[in-house]
Write a structure and sequence with these properties.
The chain is an alpha/beta fold. It has helices spanning 22-32, 49-55, 72-85, 109-130, 142-148, 184-191, 199-208; strands at 11-16, 37-43, 64-69, 90-95, 133-136, 151-158, 161-166, 169-170, 173-176, 179-182. A hairpin with a 2-residue loop joins strand 9 (173-176) and strand 10. The radius of gyration is 19 Å and the shape is globular.
Length: 210
């Protein structure tokens, strides 16, 4: 982790990135340098090459294979084809907006629920079978995705930068080209007590919204 971005563990990770769309690109981009092969099951044109490339060090984005779906039926079929595409070299699977296309008018409600549940089950199965991270984002079916995930990471955009929060991650330091910005929890952990946190640090952190 670079002080701003979580690492990814095997299993299903639900990234709640509402209001912080850059969080997905940063999370995936950092991980691409660690895997020789990754798959992105795209919906709503979330796979923006320039955004992915911006956060992928070197030429790491070349390891990423993108399959774009424009309807719920296409998304379902692409999900079903994933087991035949992945291999032992695969180190990451990404499926942003995982339920959104099933909510479109061209998919009857009774089919939409069945296809979505099958897709979610398949992605969870891949995470287990390959022992790799599977990263999901969702607006539609959000509660179901959160319930099915092994862990949740919440992302928020602040004036100091992107903040990540989860069971094993919390952004306490924000790195910039000119240096770094700390937060109240950083000083509490460092000094051992809230009373010891310098007043100026508390004031600056509060002003930044972090």
């Amino acid at each position: 982790m670079d002080g701003q971005c979580p690492t990814l563990d095997a299993g299903v990770t639900y990234l709640d990135d509402e209001g912080a769309p850059a969080a997905l690109y940063r999370l995936v981009g950092r991980h691409l340098s660690e895997t020789p092969e990754a798959y992105w099951l795209d919906a709503r044109n979330a796979a923006v090459p320039t955004a992915i490339r911006e956060h992928a060090p070197g030429r790491a984005d070349r390891s990423l294979r993108v399959a774009r779906a424009f309807t719920g039926y296409q998304h379902y079929e692409l999900a079903r084809s994933l087991p035949g595409e992945v291999s032992r070299r695969t180190g990451l699977v990404v499926a942003p907006n995982v339920g959104s296309l099933y909510d479109d008018d061209d998919v009857p409600e009774h089919e939409a629920d069945t296809m979505f549940e099958a897709t979610l089950e398949l992605l969870a199965g891949l995470a287990t079978a390959l022992d790799v991270p599977v990263v999901l984002t969702a607006r539609t079916y959000r509660d179901r995705v959160r319930a099915a995930a092994d862990r949740t990471i919440d992302a928020e955009r602040t004036r100091a930068g992107l903040r990540f929060d989860g069971a094993s991650v919390r952004t306490d330091v924000y790195w910039h080209g000119w240096g770094f910005q700390t937060t109240i929890p950083y000083w509490v952990e460092l000094l051992g007590a809230d009373e010891a946190t310098p007043a100026r640090v508390r004031t600056n952190a509060a002003a930044l919204g972090v």
